[in-house]
Amino acid sequence: MKKTLGIILSGIIFFPFLLLLGLSVGKDWRFPDVLPGEWTLDHWSELFQLQGDLTQSLLLSLGISLLVATLSTVIGFITSKYIAYHPKKKTLLALAYFPYVLAPIIYAAVLYFYFIVLGLSGNFFGVVIGQMIIAYPFAVIIFVGYWNKRMQAMEQLVYTLGGTPWQAYQKVLFPVSKGILMVCFFQTFLISWFEYGLTMLIGVGKIQTLTLKVFHYVNEANIYHAALASCLLFLPPWILILINKRIVFRTES
Amino acid sequence: MLSVSHLHKSFEQEQVLKDLSLELGTRQMLSILGRSGSGKTTFLRIIAGLEQPDQGDIFWHEQRMNEVPPHQRNIVYLYQEALLFPHLTVFENIAFGLRLRKVPKSEADDRVRQMIQDLELHGQQDKMPHQLSGGQRQRVSFGRALIVNPLLLLLDEPFGNLDVETRKRMQDFLKRIAETYKITAIFVTHDLKEAILMGDRIGYMRKGSLYLYEDVREFVEDARTEAANEIAFWEEVARK
């Protein structure tokens, strides 16, 4: 009974993924056929053409998400420390929640004027900065609870042993905090990777990330390309999970 | 020689240090007894450069230290907890200060091996901090500090987390190692016996003021230290 239930549940969970995979290698799949009329790797082979739309979007998405995740994690880690030890910690932390309270898309729309003035509308760095509006405060919120008296004492110990503030980060704070840094990197990567509204608004449709591409294909009823783009969309997070599973899902031994 | 004059420090409305002055010769260990909240830790943090005084001067010989950042003072501040770096082995924890100073690897490694021997930590060098006992961790912490030849060692209740037996062993150990490495140190504690045992000189801190004594007798006779009361208590226990 348990086994049957397990199979049914697994089927429900994995069916959409299998369907996407099937669609990405299918052709002429018409109702009421149970299977596609033709199996082909044509859609996937497009990925190996560097000038192809999907390849460009995949690389663009990877570039944006890696940059957003790296910057948010590093800057969030450093600034959250100052916030955590600041006498006005609560006020500063409230600011980190601001983009979420206002809804990120509305917040970005309010700030859009500045993006235009600074020439950041419709370009790569504009989208990176736009996504950091939500990813960076998220990183601060993750890290702020991490700093405590013990971490502060450890940092100060490095100073009295002769270490500069940079050495304290390099030799102790970063290595000791590897686990939470990886978790934050992973989470901010996901925020950026699946981001649609902000990217659409600030990128004004010129920055075609993979997520935007999926919606684009869905809108034009191009189910095979939409499926392929979706497969690509969930591939990097899965790879990241596999790489980080020991850290992300670590249990205390 | 450490010279501190007219040190004042307040946090908001609370005055933590009041006109504190002190002179401490090289190779001396001053133990300071005081209750929680008497200002002992703030005093040590100011000497280490981790806090700035509101008023007053700190000199090491002729050099004014007030503006020297903590990493350039060569004054090591040790906490109640050993605070070993959890990602480094015992060997690398001890070598930490030498690596920061970019001492050539072979020389650094030789010094660490010698220190491990002095710390009586043979066979422990490849262990991670969580594999050590409380006393061993504290020894590594001392080794990590001593290996950089600090001008001054500041010990903030270093044995506070240890059980009675280990504490006794560590007190003996610190006395021995202080002798070997000829260290100058300020040892802060709220344990009367420990204060008497550890210091070449002894002081008592109360409400931000430091009282220094010529010898143990003068310390015991001062009613503020309550040493006489404690001695009387134990004599009373012994009579029963």
Query: What overall geometry of chain B do the principal axes of the alpha carbons give?
Result: globular
How much helical structure, as a percent, in the residues of chain B?
A: 25-40%
Gyration radius of chain A, rounded:
22 Å
Order of helices and strands of chain A: HEEHHHHHHHHHHH
Q: State the total count of DSSP E strands of chain A.
A: 2
Strand order of the largest sheet of chain B: 6-7-8-3-9-10
Biggest interface between chains: A-B, 18 and 28 residues
Identify low-pLDDT runs of chain A: none
Summarize the main sheet of chain A.
Answer: 2 strands, antiparallel
Radius of gyration of chain B: 19 Å
- The outline of chain A comes out as globular
The H/E string of chain B reads: EEEHEEHEHHHEHEHEEHH
Percent of residues of chain A in beta strands? under 5%
Which percent range describes the beta-strand content of chain B? 25-35%
Which secondary-structure class do the elements of chain A indicate? mainly alpha
Largest beta sheet: strand ordering of chain A: 1-2
* Oligomeric state of the chains present here: heterodimer
What count of helical segments of chain B does DSSP give?
Answer: 9
Q: What is the arithmetic mean of pLDDT of chain B?
A: 91
Q: Helical content of chain A, roughly?
A: over 70%
Q: Class by helix and strand content of chain B?
A: alpha/beta
Structure description:
The complex is a heterodimer of chains A (253) and B (240). Chain A is mainly alpha-helical. Chain A has 12 helices and 2 strands, in the order H-E-E-H-H-H-H-H-H-H-H-H-H-H. Chain A has helices spanning 2-24, 42-45, 53-85, 89-102, 104-117, 124-144, 149-160, 165-176, 178-193, 197-203, 210-219, 223-248; strands at 26-27, 38-39. In chain A, strands 1-2 form a two-stranded antiparallel sheet. In chain A, helix 6 (124-144) runs antiparallel to helix 10 (197-203). The model of chain A has no long low-confidence stretch (mean pLDDT 87). Chain B is an alpha/beta fold and 240 residues long. The termini of chain B are far apart. The mean pLDDT of chain B is 91. Chain B has helices at residues 40-48, 70-73, 90-100, 105-118, 134-146, 164-181, 192-198, 216-221, 227-239, and strands spanning 2-11, 14-24, 29-34, 55-60, 63-64, 75-78, 152-156, 185-189, 201-206, 209-213. In chain B, the strands form 2 sheets. Chain B has a 6-stranded mixed sheet with strand order 6-7-8-3-9-10, sandwiched between helices. Chain B has a 4-stranded antiparallel sheet with strand order 2-1-4-5, with helices on one face. In chain B, a hairpin with a 2-residue loop joins strand 1 (2-11) and strand 2 (14-24). Chain A binds chain B through residues 150, 153-154, 156-164, 167, 171-172, 175-176, 178, and chain B through 48-50, 69-79, 81, 83, 85-87, 96-97, 99-101, 144-145, 148, 154.
